[in-house]
């Protein structure tokens, strides 16, 4: 199904007439011709190289080349997304970019430039992160040494002031030994400093202690805030550490443990003067690197913005070229290797447009030989093509979800435009809820141009696609809501005052006792006085149940009538006389008669029991009806209809298989005298051979009879079950009305009765939430699914085969907006 808005109107009941076309295109103009056909979007190519793998086809190298260009464009898109840039959709392409060769060179250069920028930026970022960590180590470890030096100075002063025997408990235990030992014999300790992830710091400390048996001194300091790790580039919480050790063996163990824990090590000196000098140098380098990184990012973003202005056009051009070469691979090469041969389907009305496109391609490429357009005769079933617009396309999709119509078969989508939203509204009848649906749908319709160019979520996109279906559902819901006289379950006297009034002042609105008819009948819909009365539920149940039967029988009759038009269109007299006629007789002898009784009872005001009439029509057809008689001659009519229904069953079952067998024998009588083939047209010879081979197939009478038996049983039982299935209209309408009434009475009115503002606000919030969540979302989905079932099962199975396949033309307009994998 293809959407076209600018074409002349056509009968949507039958699909577009199609033809199989044979094209012979010179190789010089083949690419341009396929491109013009893609712009036209009215030709479906057949794959003439189905036996070849993708790598064995003629244009595999060109497709690989386009795939590489598409990969570069995906790389550009990912880089723009990471940089937070968006690609423009309003730019125009230069003439150079229309040339695929020049575009390929340009994309290659841009990719190389971008990769080089990314590599340089990553290297600079890594260096910057390392210097930043080094600065933290210098600051934190320098703080260790400053505090240690201050503590040592204080202890020295304490030693000088106090006598040897009066020192505090904090004084070093080996102080006397240190004072008497030669300073040149003191042990020189080594140190390792760096940063370790904070989550691994405890395990790091424990492993160090165990590996060195406690012969190290570890000091850690927490770094405020996360630090960018130079290796992974991720932000990690880290601690600065410094380890003092003695001996090369301990040093080797410490270095291995640091590598295992991915601790970044940095050199450190205990000279305070050099520490301050190194901090100054590192800070200067950080400042320079920051300026360099910012300048590189600015240049990179400028390049990405330049790419973004042309990205959509480049992407579309690459997709078009790739689809063109994919299509060219479906064509076969002529024996002279000078032409390409194509076969495919196109609408009969598009023949002139396709020929003009081929002539234009020949003229633009200065080709000396024009393309040949030839219509082929075939017995192959053509594809189904309905031209729809944005309004009818959603309804057609509902039908196609069940099955695509057979070629030229009657299309249920024509009637679905009206019947689907109407049956939905019968179950969803409330004009307050209908207005809410209408406002939500109008929002999508008014802003459809904006939403159609955006990527929406799955649910929103599905709702937006069916906006016109929901729009019709809302309009019909308002209509049926006015008939039911329900506005969020509240009745209104919109079309005039009620026909009923109180007999005396003591009567109440909650009961029919004391009410009498004082005016003419309420002009439209249900009288508001019925709501809240004792007989409201029995009255509405009777009304909606009978109305459901009437609607169901009418729609099933429509389906059978459409089967007559299908049989007449395809000149199938057997289906007219031995399928349509008995089906109409059987259905209307039983349920058509029931519908007639309902209408007569409504018109006459009779109190006849229709259950009793229908049951005893089968049990005692000759019994006197008594008070259940609605009109003169009803008993005789019932016997006549019952006999007609009984006769219709064998009428459907037996004649058709025998007539099919007779037709088969007449068609193949004298088949031994075959035509002498001339051999001038091998294509026609092959088709004739195929036709003859099919004709020699044996006629399986038993199989045909069993199939007809199944079809007859299915229709007879389905006539009963399908009519009962339409009672879902009554059930869901009742459920919707009762739920709406409960939310109004037990939530809103209950909160109003407390005379408390807070409780009233809470009640309004709960009422709105329940109305939106249950009635406007869940009930809408439920009624939608039930209406869908009524169309697919009860309506379409009367006439619709749905055994066709869609017309899928080669069209640039149908290219997916998503990049190919």
Number of separate helices: 24
Q: From the alpha carbons, calculate the radius of gyration and give it in angstroms.
A: 43 Å
What's the overall geometry?
flat
The total beta strand count reads 15
Characterize the quaternary organization of these chains.
Answer: single chain
What proportion of the residues form beta strands (DSSP E)? Answer: 5-15%
Largest sheet: 5 strands, antiparallel
Share of helical residues = 55-70%
Arithmetic mean pLDDT: 86
Q: Poorly predicted ranges (pLDDT <50, ≥5 residues)?
A: 1-10, 672-696, 817-821
Distance between the termini: 25 Å
Structural class: alpha+beta
Topology:
Layout (H helix, E strand, L loop, with lengths): L1 E2 L14 E9 H14 L3 E2 L14 H23 L12 H4 L1 H62 L13 H6 L9 E8 L3 H11 L5 E6 L4 E2 L6 E2 L1 E8 L2 H13 L3 E3 L5 H57 L3 E2 L5 E9 L3 H14 L7 E5 L10 E2 L3 H11 L10 H15 L3 H16 L1 H5 L5 H8 L1 H18 L15 E3 L12 E3 L18 H34 L3 H32 L5 H10 L14 H20 L1 H13 L14 H14 L5 H25 L2 H25 L4 H39 L26
Parallel strand pairs: 1-13
Antiparallel strand pairs: 2-11, 2-12, 3-11, 4-8, 4-9, 5-8, 6-7, 10-11, 14-15
Helix pairs in contact: 1-8, 1-9, 2-4, 2-8, 4-8, 6-7, 10-11, 11-15, 11-23, 11-24, 12-15, 16-17, 16-22, 16-23, 17-19, 17-20, 17-22, 20-22, 23-24
